[in-house]
Amino acid sequence: MKGHINTDIGEVMIDHDVLAKYAGASAVECFGVVGMASVNMKDGIVKLLKKDNLSHGVNVIIDEKNKITIDLHIIVSYGVSISAVADNLISNVKYNVEEFSGLEVDKINIFVEGVRVID
To answer: I need a surface site. Which of 31, 33, 55, 105 has the fewest CB within 10 A?
Structure first.
């Protein structure tokens, strides 16, 4: 199901991929987030994604009530408080996606897939 907004002059449809890219871009701007992660379920290998693949670490679900659930698979920087990073990440991504799309974000799930030491 795509996100949709009814207006006076028609209907706006927003694809999952658009919301996923926007959420991924918002996530990597947050302090303590090194980047988005791609998990190979077969091999159990976690890979740090490049900037052009940010949506691969994000899963977006839009329910029948037009509310969004976002799953973020991230890699955090060594030495940061994961709970502080998660709180900041949730508030920033929620605000940015809601302002961008006009749709309500119901839930954001964070999956910390790895830790990296940053020089």
So the answer is: 31
pLDDT tens for each residue of 8-19: 788 888 888 889
Q: Which CATH number fits domain 3-116: 3.30.70.1350, 3.30.980.10, 3.40.50.920, 1.10.472.10?
A: 3.30.70.1350
- Alpha helices for the chain (secondary structure H): 16-28, 82-101
DSSP state of 80: S
Give domain limits for the chain: 3-116
User: What contacts 75, CB < 8 A, 6 or more positions away?
Assistant: 33, 34, 35, 36, 37, 46, 48, 112, 113, 114, 115, 116
